[in-house]
């Protein structure tokens, strides 16, 4: 038997060497599910299955890359190259490039990222004259996204009174119209958003049986990792493709299903056995990742969930240290504890920075941790948040590139038609949009036919528009012969982008310039990498697709020896020696927005289970007594999840009861005996807490109403001050005290105008300004 198979235990070996037929592996964290999937692919290939016939779907592109690397070690580079591996989005984007024409899309279609989609929705809402405080772009976006992921097309929407009623109840009766217009505009722009990549694939496979048959024949062996987090759209794609040969292997853990808020459907894993005939179900029980203490702690927590499959997880690893719980006074104090513990442990145990990870519930929590790590000179990297490719200067340059490939791309065009400034105002752009909608043309087509259409634009402006068209067309000509790097460099120089950035000599401006240079380097690497491939296609198109689909974990550049900071959602499937889970406080984790129903609370608990099980050697849990949230210092109480860990596995230095402010206890629990509440069911405990909030104002745990908590998915990087609000008093290292007058922009571009006591008013980029909220 193949030598590498000796690296599997018996339970793992059985599914690895089952070649044909449907199978499911349901098993707890760290039991080797991903390893089985990897080895299984190598095994199939060693038994003569052609790499071209294997499709493996993973949660991130990074996971796919790593898996491919391991398979290459076993079967050799040449063969592994031909495997189809990646996320659902990247694999099906490739297929849609070949087949999208059946649906009326060009092969060079643009992929709209979240920012593009939201901008387009924003402008549709504006064009329709709707109230943007009711039709909030982000809400409209997530609503439409959820329709798409449930395969509710515009037509299906109008046939579904329940959905329409729900929108009407939410004071958005015109959702259907927005949805319809949005879909039409994307189509006209030759663009697909992230959800379309799945929705349109489904449409393709349903409407075109010959295409379906072709891909069924091609993908004779299908493997899916993290199956518990597939949504309905993904589920249907897998089912359609696997239908003919039924060689489908899915692995997952119901206890790690954490994406319900994005439409993931846990029943996909629970119903798998009903979907195929003769399913072999495998269970893996031995955890290889973590110590006995960590496995015991994680098992005891997940026991509290009612909805779960019964699973055994045990480990032969060492007992290890108990899970450490640390109480901090504030979030700053919490950061200092994390940094000093990392520093000491690293010294004492001769470890690397990369042996440590800090996991949190929301991106906004990273700032305090970052500050503390920086003070100790510990290198770290934040994963998630605003990605490199979403920065303004990067999107500006890529918008030019997108437009060259696909001049119908409306969002790209709107972005650069007057950037750098060439005297084309917003009114002109609005008129162009109206004309384009009226004539059923794209904006670029309108621009090319300015003389023959009826549009109220003066001669001078028309000339400027013509110049713009000439510029883009000259790039298109160059694109026919030049490679992507030469073209991008030429665009940067001749479009005026460089000149524009050069004007800004501030440190922020310099960073932007560096970023543009970095993007050019990236394109160069990509082009050079492609030259080695015999079948290199259109390099620019492929590069743009890659960056549109880069997930938060991809593109891991720089010094690899850093502490990893990320949300728990992003940490799925990963492992680290030492893991800190910070902010274990009621209303934060479990999140205040997810405590209303048992199922929401159970999802939060699964999230905690995922977090704990990332740790190999040691897990640390921290919570604070008070924390800055939404710009205010609020009292906090320890998360119920800490108490749910069996005490034999946890080391609580300061008892959870004592350290709480006694006044606060009174206000929360009144005169009820505390222990009874400790062990009350979560729901009961919550009600008690809620009631107590009505008690004397002074002790209230207040959540200011008008301020919205930062959702995990929001594009907020913790590396700058996200809690800031107009009206806050702040302290700046150099300028002293001041008041926040205005805030503009978001993410890495957020700026605040601050009036300082010394009389100066300054506009500061929050990413750099170290402001302390007073
Ligand atoms: P998760 O649920 O977190 O995704 P998983 O079930 O996919 O976890 P893996 O990541 O495949 O688990 O494995 C966890 C760790 O245990 C990895 O470091 C892996 O290399 C190791 N491992 C798995 N099986 C074995 C084995 N038979 N012998 C030694 N190490 C193993
Ligand atoms: Mg895994």
TrEMBL record:
ATP binds at residues 27-34. Residues 6-291 form the UvrD-like helicase ATP-binding domain. The keyword DNA-binding applies. Residues 292-573 form the UvrD-like helicase C-terminal domain. GO terms for molecular function: 3'-5' DNA helicase activity; ATP binding; ATP hydrolysis activity; DNA binding. This is DNA 3'-5' helicase. Belongs to the helicase family. UvrD subfamily. GO terms for biological process: recombinational repair. The keyword Transmembrane does not apply. Keywords: ATP-binding, DNA-binding, Helicase, Hydrolase, Isomerase, Nucleotide-binding. Its EC number is 5.6.2.4. GO terms for cellular component: cytosol; DNA helicase complex. It catalyses: ATP + H2O = ADP + phosphate + H(+); Couples ATP hydrolysis with the unwinding of duplex DNA by translocating in the 3'-5' direction. It holds the Pfam family UvrD_C.
């Amino acid at each position: 038997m193949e030598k590498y198979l000796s690296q599997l235990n018996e339970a793992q070996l059985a599914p690895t060497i089952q070649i044909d037929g449907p199978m499911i592996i349901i098993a707890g964290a760290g039991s080797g599910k991903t390893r089985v999937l990897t080895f299984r692919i190598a095994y199939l290939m060693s038994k003569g299955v052609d790499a071209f016939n294997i499709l493996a779907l993973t949660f991130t592109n990074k996971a796919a890359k790593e898996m491919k690397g391991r398979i290459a070690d076993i079967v050799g580079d040449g063969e592994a190259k031909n495997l189809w591996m990646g996320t659902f989005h990247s694999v099906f984007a490739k297929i849609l490039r070949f087949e999208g024409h059946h649906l009326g899309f060009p092969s060079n279609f643009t992929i709209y990222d979240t920012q593009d989609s939201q901008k387009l929705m924003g402008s549709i809402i504006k064009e329709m004259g709707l109230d943007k405080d009711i039709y909030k772009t982000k809400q409209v976006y997530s609503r439409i996204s959820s329709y798409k992921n449930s395969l509710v097309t515009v037509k299906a929407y109008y046939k579904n009174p329940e959905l329409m009623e729900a929108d009407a109840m939410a004071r958005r009766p015109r959702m259907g119209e927005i949805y319809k217009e949005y879909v039409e505009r994307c189509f006209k722009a030759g663009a697909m958003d992230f959800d379309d990549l799945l929705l349109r694939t489904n449409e393709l496979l349903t409407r075109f049986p010959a295409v379906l048959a072709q891909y069924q024949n091609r993908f004779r062996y299908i493997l899916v990792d993290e199956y518990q987090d597939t949504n309905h759209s993904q589920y249907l794609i897998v089912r359609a493709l696997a239908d003919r040969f039924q060689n489908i292997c899915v692995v997952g853990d119901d206890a790690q299903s954490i994406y319900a808020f994005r439409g993931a459907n846990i029943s996909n894993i629970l119903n798998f056995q009903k979907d195929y005939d003769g399913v072999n179900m495998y269970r893996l029980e031995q955890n290889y990742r973590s110590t006995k203490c960590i496995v015991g702690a994680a098992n005891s927590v997940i026991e509290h969930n009612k909805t779960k499959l019964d699973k055994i997880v045990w480990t032969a690893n060492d007992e290890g240290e108990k899970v450490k719980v640390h109480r901090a006074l504030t979030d700053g104090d919490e950061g200092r504890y994390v940094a000093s513990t990392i520093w000491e442990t690293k010294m004492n145990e001769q470890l690397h920075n990369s042996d440590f990870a800090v996991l949190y519930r929301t991106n906004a929590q990273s700032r305090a941790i970052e500050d503390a790590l920086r003070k100790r000179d510990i290198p770290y990297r934040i994963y998630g948040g605003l990605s490199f490719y979403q920065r303004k200067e990067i999107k500006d340059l890529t918008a030019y590139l997108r437009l060259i490939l696909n001049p119908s791309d409306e969002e790209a065009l709107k972005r650069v038609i007057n950037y750098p400034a060439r005297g084309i105002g917003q009114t002109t752009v609005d008129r162009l949009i109206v004309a384009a909608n009226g004539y059923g043309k794209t904006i670029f087509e309108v621009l090319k036919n300015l003389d023959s259409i009826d549009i109220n634009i003066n001669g001078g402006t028309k000339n400027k528009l013509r110049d713009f068209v000439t510029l883009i067309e000259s790039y298109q000509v160059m694109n026919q012969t030049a490679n992507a790097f030469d073209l991008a460099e030429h665009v940067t120089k001749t479009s005026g982008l460089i000149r524009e950035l050069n004007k800004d000599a501030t440190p922020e401006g310099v960073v932007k310039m560096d970023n543009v240079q970095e993007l050019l380097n990236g394109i160069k690497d990509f082009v050079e990498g492609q030259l080695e491939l015999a079948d290199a296609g259109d390099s620019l198109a492929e590069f743009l697709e890659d960056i549109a689909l880069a997930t938060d974990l991809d593109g891991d550049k720089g010094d690899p020896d850093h502490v990893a900071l990320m949300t728990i959602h992003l940490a799925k499937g990963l492992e680290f020696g030492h893991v800190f889970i910070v902010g274990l406080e009621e209303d934060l984790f479990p999140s205040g927005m997810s405590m209303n129903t048992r199922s929401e609370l159970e999802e939060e608990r699964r999230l905690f289970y995922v977090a704990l099980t990332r740790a190999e050697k040691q897990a640390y849990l921290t919570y604070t007594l008070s924390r800055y949230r939404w710009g205010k210092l609020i009292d906090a109480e320890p998360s119920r999840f800490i108490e749910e860990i069996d005490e034999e596995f946890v080391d609580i230095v300061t008892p959870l009861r004592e350290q709480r402010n006694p006044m606060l206890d009174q206000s929360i629990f009144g005169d009820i005996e505390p222990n009874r509440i400790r062990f009350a069911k979560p729901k009961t405990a919550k009600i008690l807490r809620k009631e107590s909030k009505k008690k004397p104002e002074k002790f209230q745990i207040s959540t200011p109403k008008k301020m919205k908590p930062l959702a995990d998915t929001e594009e907020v990087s913790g590396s700058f001050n996200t809690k800031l609000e107009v009206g806050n008093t702040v302290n700046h290292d150099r300028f002293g005290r001041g008041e926040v007058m205005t805030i503009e922009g978001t993410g890495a571009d957020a700026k605040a105008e601050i009036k300082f006591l010394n009389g100066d008013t300054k506009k500061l980029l929050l990413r750099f300004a170290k402001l302390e909220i007073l």
